[in-house]
Write a structure and sequence with these properties.
Blueprint lengths: L3 H10 L6 E2 L10 H17 L7 E5 L4 H12 L3 E4 L6 H11 L3 E4 L1 H9 L9 E4 L10 E2 H7 L14 E7 L7 E6 H11 L10 E4 L6 H12 L3 E4 L5 H11 L3 E4 L1 H9 L13 E5 L5 H10 L4 E7 L6 E5 L10 H10 L5 E2 L4 E5 L12 E6 L6 E2 L14 E9 L5 E6 L4 E3 L2 E3 L1 H9 L4 E11 L3 E10 L7 H11 L8 E4 L13 H8 L3
Parallel strand pairs: 1-10, 2-3, 2-4, 4-5, 5-6, 9-10, 9-11, 11-12, 12-13, 24-25
Antiparallel strand pairs: 7-8, 8-18, 13-14, 14-15, 16-17, 17-19, 19-20, 21-22, 23-24
Helix pairs in contact: 2-3, 2-6, 7-8, 10-11
Length: 521
């Protein structure tokens, strides 16, 4: 099934329902019919710029309806959508754009200069659309003006479940972000298995503050479209603004990363807002400290909590800890079992298989630790530009890189990661990428980057650095060096200096030993 049909079906059932609430004061409220019409006109604009089947269209901006309009315009044309992390620096954005070679790039005003500075962007060949009207566009096309002037697109897509619809970049175990190739089936299989379709007699108002370059944000958008829900878009998370939106729009459901939830509860004005409309809070994208979820259960007594676990390569949630396991009532034995389950990632969802395997690819029995692997239609096809498809084995199993075990009741518990990815506030950070950036500083001989547990952010980025003989550099200088080259959330929070890094017999740095030695504050 083509994802465009998600929008078509919602339009047929609830055409007059607001699809989005956006803008500083919630003044932008297109209904589903208008949403579909704008996406169709944008498809005409893109087609006139030469976009066709298999061509890539990139977008870099904070959350706005333009993300959804552009995605579904691409789906109409059988083109491939590429959301770009708006926190990226020039080198990072250039890597993503160079890898995917988009025919057209759309960008918010604050990102246009960055796009133009990317070496791979040929101003004479690459179409550029400004999402906001600017005084001196310098070759950029005005988004609103062209949509208003265009006719609706009369064609219909032919892509199906197995065709690529999106390339989403994520930091993997290597230094450079990888483009995860996702299909129409990656998204439709999830929403149709787990989300009720649009209902003319019932509506849910969802607050979406997770960025739409992130798989959790895209999953929420797809679920909202299929479910005929009104999506309230917060451009970027800000706690007081989040609470104002819940109160003003009577929000029923929200998706958050643990950092956001803790920041809300710690806010001095938390008790001043009416958040009683909230019925469901889904959390994920990073480990949830037990103390934080226990506090949330206490402060949101009427809210149903859901822990959703997945990764970009799985396109959506693959395991879930449901609301009933967050209900800490019952006998002392029941409560003790639920408290234990709060530390799990729940049980596999319908439509996906999840197992624990050893290094030989054999399924392990209950309570034995191994790697979490998954299989099903919603998984990625592979990494863009990598024909080897090494992440998926011959039987279709995706090795997630997460280590864990399954208990006798089928609940899966994380115990670590085979790949040393750092998860800070829901963002995935490659240690190798930060290390290579530090080592480009003239005074740094070598560096090792580790993730240190933190109640607020999940993990913090710490670095251990060896300085060249005869050179010097301060902690502040090295942090600023990385901040200039990388997205701000990737910079080290703390830097330790040492004479040498621990290595094995083959000369490889032993990262677990670095953690043992420098993992504290």
């Amino acid at each position: 099934m083509n994802t465009f049909e998600l929008l078509e079906i919602a339009c047929a059932i609830v055409p007059d329902r607001p699809a989005f609430v956006a803008g500083e004061h919630g003044q932008i409220k297109p209904d589903f019919a208008t949403f579909r019409d704008r996406a169709s006109r944008l498809a005409t604009v893109l087609a006139n710029m030469g976009v066709g089947r298999g061509d890539r269209v990139a977008l870099m901006d904070i959350n706005s309806p333009a993300h959804a309009e552009t995605y579904f315009a691409c789906a109409m044309l059988d083109a491939i959508y590429v959301p770009v992390n708006f926190r990226s620096r020039t080198a990072e954005a250039n890597h993503m754009l160079e890898r995917t070679s988009p025919s057209v790039i759309l960008a918010g005003e604050r990102y246009m200069e960055l796009i133009d500075s990317c070496e791979c962007v040929d101003r004479n060949k690459t179409g550029r659309i400004a999402l906001e009207s600017v005084a001196n566009p310098d070759g950029w096309t005005d988004y609103e003006a062209t949509i208003k002037a265009a006719d609706p697109y009369l064609g219909y897509p032919s892509g199906d479940d197995d065709d690529t619809t999106m390339i989403m970049f994520t930091s993997g175990s290597t230094s450079a972000p990888k483009g995860v190739t996702l299909t129409h089936g990656s998204f439709t299989s999830f929403v149709m298995d787990n989300v009720p379709p649009a209902d003319p007699d019932a509506n849910e108002c969802n607050l979406l503050t997770v960025p739409l370059y992130h798989i959790a944000g895209v999953q929420s958008m797809m679920a909202g479209v299929w479910g005929g829900r009104t999506l309230v878009l917060q451009q970027q998370f800000e706690p007081e603004g989040w609470m104002e939106l819940v109160q003003r729009e009577n929000v029923n459901r929200a998706m958050m990363v643990p950092t956001m939830l803790k920041t809300l509860m710690d806010h001095p004005k938390f008790s001043e807002f009416d958040l009683s409309s909230l019925d469901v809070i889904t959390y994920g994208a990073a480990a949830m400290p037990e103390s934080v979820i226990l506090e949330a259960i206490e402060k949101f007594p009427d809210v149903k909590f859901i822990n959703a676990f997945g990764q970009t390569e799985t396109a959506a949630t693959i395991t879930m800890l449901p609301p009933e396991d967050h209900d800490l009532t019952g006998t002392p034995e029941d409560i003790a079992k639920k408290r234990t389950r709060l530390r799990s990632i729940g049980v596999p969802l319908d439509g996906v298989e999840v197992l624990i395997m050893n290094e030989e690819g054999e399924e392990l029995p209950d309570n034995e630790k191994g790697e979490i692997v998954a299989r099903g239609k919603r998984l990625m096809k592979g990494y863009w530009g990598d024909d080897t498809n090494k992440a998926l084995n011959s039987e279709g199993w995706l090795h997630t890189g997460d280590l864990g075990y399954r208990d006798e009741d089928g609940y899966i518990f994380l115990t670590g990661r085979a790949r040393e990815i750092i998860k800070r506030g829901g963002e995935m950070i490659s240690p190798e990428e930060v290390e290579e950036t530090l080592e480009r500083h003239g005074a740094v001989r070598e560096a090792s980057v580790i993730g240190v547990p933190d109640t607020t952010w999940g993990e913090l980025v710490h670095a251990v650095v060896v300085i060249e003989d005869g050179s010097s550099a301060s902690e502040a200088e090295l942090i600023e060096h990385t901040r200039k080259a990388l997205a701000s959330y990737k910079k080290p929070e703390k830097i330790y200096f040492t004479d040498e890094l621990p290595r094995n017999a083959l000369g490889k740095v032993i990262r677990p030993r670095v953690k043992e030695q420098f993992g504290g504050d």
